[in-house]
Amino acid sequence: MAERKKRKVAWDARGVHALRAHLALTQERMAAELGTRQQTISEWETGQYQPRGASARLLALIAERAGFVYGAAPDSEPEGKGEG
Questions:
Q1: Distance (Å) of CA 43 to CA 10, 12, 40, 84
Q2: CA 1 from chain center: how many Å?
Q3: Would you write out the chain's pLDDT as a tens digit for each of its 84 residues?
């Protein structure tokens, strides 16, 4: 069986905002759903930080289940700075 290289979504400010809009959530509601602070969502959406680690994976899972299409980046790319 051929090994599939795992890919991860590299979330940027535009992607986080677009996902939130797709879900029709406020920053406060999205923060509550993710178990984080509203300020964190704001920082992601302004590009101050990027979601990484578990937060990025959770966003990807939510996006997939919501039918939201967003690009993936190879594993070798840096995750960027962030609060995750």
A1: 15, 11, 5, 11
A2: 30
A3: 555 455 566 899 999 999 999 999 999 999 999 999 999 999 999 999 999 999 999 999 999 999 998 875 544 344 444 555
Domain 7-74: give its CATH architecture: Orthogonal Bundle (1.10)
Domain locations in the chain?
A: 7-74
Rounded to two decimals, what is the model's pTM?
0.75
DSSP string, 51-78: --HHHHHHHHHHHHHHT-----EETTS-
Decide: helix, strand or coil at residue 17.
helix
The Cβ-side half-sphere exposure at 27, using a 13 Å CA radius, reads 12
